[in-house]
Amino acid sequence: MKASEIRSKWLEFFESKGHVIEPSAPLVPHKDPSLLWINAGMAPLKPYFDGRVKPENPRIANSQKCIRTNDIENVGKTRRHHTFFEMLGNFSIGDYFKEEVITWAWEFLTDPKWIGFDPERLAVTVYPEDEEAYKLWNEKVGLPAERIVKLEDNFWDIGEGPCGPCTEIFYDRGEAYGSDMTDPEMYPGGENERYLEVWNLVFSQFNHNKDGSYTPLPNKNIDTGAGLERFASILQNVDSNFDTDIFQPLIQKTAAMAGVKYNDNVDSDVALKVIADHVRTVTFAIGDGVLPSNEGRGYVIRRLLRRAVRYGKMLGMNRPFMFELVETVGDIMGVYYPEVVDKRDFIIKVIKTEEERFHETLTDGLAILADISAQAKAEGRNVISGADAFKLYDTYGFPFDLTEDYADEQGLKVDREGFDEAMQEQRQRARDAHQDNASMKIQGGALADLAVKSDFVGYNDLVTESKIVAIVYDDMLVNSVSEGKSCQVVLDVTPFYTESGGQVSDHGLLRGGTVTAKVEGLFKAPQGQHVHQVVVEAGELNVGDTVKAEVDQASRGEIEKNHTATHLLHKALKEVLGDHVNQAGSLVEPGRLRFDFSHFGSITPEELTDIELRVNRAIWNQLDVTIELKPIDEAKALGAMALFGEKYGDIVRVVKVGDYSIELCGGCHVSNTSQIGLFKLVSESGIGSGVRRIEAVTGRFGFEYMEGQLELLKVSAGLVKSKLSEVPKRIESLQQQIKDLSRENESLQSKLSAIEAGQLTDQVVQAGGVQLLAARVQASSMDALRAIADELKSKLPTAVLVLGAAMDDKVNFVVAVPAELTKAGLHAGKLVKEIAAVCGGGGGGRPDMAQAGGKDASKLDQALQRAHELVTAASQG
């Protein structure tokens, strides 16, 4: 059975059991800072599990693409470790529980219509205290007791939040994978290759509370996960996941490119498996908007790509090759994941560019490694430090094994223990960066089961007569709240927009009779109601009261201008930079807009000017903005853009700006682009991982920004004493004057250095058997001090030079040692470090030339005397 058939059968089976099929979410978590990647099938569904959002259908199934990199070193060396994989899952949000999920799992696995496993080959593990699950397997399903193993580890708990016991299902692969039944690990759940876990059913029935206690969940849930790759390995009767139709086309193509055979050599097999695994991960991640970089997700992708390239070198491929495998990834996965086909050309471009850069990096890394090796030898060391090796690896992407190979050629060793320690410290920093973010919230709260109806009418009405249908104070439903208190209010009808899609919440007032309450923000309750965060400024709010709900119309108007402007900007970016540009986040406030988007590379000033002009041209063309509700398939057929990470229902809101832009959007907009008035870019920058950010202003805020820039120009004109129109020309003239003066200053400085050097040559003394010039000189900067030293080196080629210059309260030093004396053991870097220490400073450098600084200029003469002592001792030692 092909992997694509297994996936289809899974989804078809659970659809027949009343589940809605949830499309695979992007690999980048949406509004979840606790995760670097989507790493499990339930990860995108966390808001359903913790009660923040109530799903339309409590039964959900999916096939979710995932990334995990915690065991990257094992990829290719074991049968089942991957960085990218698919997790099949079925979920119940407060609906069915243990009996249904266990009997359905058995049906799916054993019925020939579906998977058709031999029931005699299946065994399970359960939590020892979960008698209910044990009985269901034993009495309901009919699994004999000897194939039900009780394990303490069968309790799923990741800290505060939902948790509970689980049951794992294992497939017996037969005696070929282990026949020694006396082995203490030879059982389902043990460390062996015979019993392969295929499915884990988690029964979320408790809340793990802050105080460490456990209480029953208000709504019990089911969360299951099964590996598609594992199913495929069993049903295709192959030794490992890498021998399935998911990986073999990639492995065979790579083998052909490298001129090797699969299953011919252990080392080359590992390389082929690593490349196949990593190219899938990189392809999917780039397809979801992650670009190689030196931080976060981008760093993970860069590391995986470079790791695969390194294994390619082991196969003899010393050229970019990964990009040629992208099409094969699409051939295998494109039916269910069309993004890897639709974005194929862009993915290929990114990977090829990154490969080319890495090959250049390897060349640069060898040059840096040569310097590190030379310094180690000069200092009498035969070991390259773990810190240096890790810096090469972490900063430059230079593989550790290449560092070892080069060191071996130079007669050196590498401190592996120090390298591993630095690696562990980095991993700990990464864990610490995420551990403060709770994986899930505690389920429950006053709003969790609130079923009152609340309608949003704020697209057209900004003032409504509304009835208060619920008040929450201190996380409890109450009937009234008095003056001066903050609370949450639900209205039967509201004109207030709740923050969503980057657009901030409306502000305004609730007024009625003697009561006035200020609306400071909104959020959505689990069942979708708009919840108003209010402060009662006068009177008393009561459930059942009728109030006038009034949105701050001026603020809403500015928000609408900025929101429509983001749509125009999105379209302009695609026109100028390419169709690969996709929104990666936005903020729409009254006073500004911020737009994050995926883009590989920088943006030129000319491109920014073009983008800004295109947006303003759309404003000047007075395009009508029309909004319609349409079936999602029809909307996408019209070309409507769907935003990154957002989920949409069957009926969507389509915002069309003339014939220029069309997007799916739930936000508020102007009715005609002319209402925006003006669009002005304020800044553009990269914010990491191949994502760039534009900030802009519109309308009166755009005018105010332009006025501010004009005022700066007027001030500048006054400072350079010119007309506004002549400021650039005047600045060019002043810059040329500065260059001329700088050249003249350098010439004079050179002459002064020569004069200063000429006056010092007669101060050379003997220090042991070495000529030494240790002198105080006049120099206004470190550059000037080095210039004097350069002059003296030509006049005194065999002398050790120690020059010190006082500058205000501080002091600078330069030390130069002739090449023949460095071979004898004199080291400029070590000398200058000890000399500067006399003045409370420090420094260092090469064996032949070094510099340092000190804090106490009053001790300069003592430092020079110390230089005499050190050189004398070194020359005699």
Concise account of the structure shown:
This protein is an alpha+beta fold and 877 residues long.
Explain this structure:
With 877 residues, the protein is of the alpha+beta class. The protein is built from 23 helices and 35 strands. Strands 1, 2, 3, 4, 5, 6, 7, 8 and 9 form a nine-stranded mixed sheet that branches. The protein is globular, with a radius of gyration of 35 Å.
Shape label? globular
Number of helices: 23
Low-confidence stretches: 434-439
- Terminal CA distance: 79 Å
Radius of gyration: 35 Å
The tally of beta strands, per DSSP, is: 35
Average pLDDT rating: 89
Backbone structural class? alpha+beta
Main beta-sheet annotation: 9 strands, mixed
| Helical content class | 25-40%
* Residues in β-strands, percent: 15-25%
Chart the SSEs and their pairings.
Elements: H1 3-16, E1 20-22, H2 46-49, E2 59-67, E3 84-93, H3 98-110, E4 122-126, H4 131-141, E5 148-150, E6 155-156, E7 161-172, E8 195-208, E9 214-227, H5 228-235, H6 248-258, H7 266-287, H8 296-314, H9 326-333, H10 339-342, H11 344-378, E10 383-384, H12 386-396, H13 400-409, E11 413-414, H14 416-435, E12 455-456, E13 463-473, E14 476-478, E15 480-481, E16 486-491, E17 493-494, E18 508-512, E19 515-524, E20 530-538, E21 541-542, E22 546-551, H15 553-577, E23 583-588, E24 593-598, H16 605-620, E25 625-631, H17 632-637, E26 651-657, E27 661-664, E28 679-686, E29 691-698, H18 699-720, H19 727-760, E30 765-767, E31 770-776, H20 782-795, E32 800-807, E33 810-816, H21 819-823, H22 828-838, E34 842-845, E35 849-854, H23 860-876
Parallel strand pairs: 1-2, 4-5, 10-11, 12-17, 31-32
Antiparallel strand pairs: 2-3, 3-9, 4-7, 6-7, 7-8, 8-9, 13-14, 13-16, 13-22, 15-21, 16-20, 18-19, 18-22, 19-20, 23-24, 24-29, 25-26, 26-27, 28-29, 30-31, 32-33, 33-35, 34-35
Helix pairs in contact: 3-4, 6-7, 7-8, 7-11, 8-11, 12-14, 15-16, 19-20, 22-23
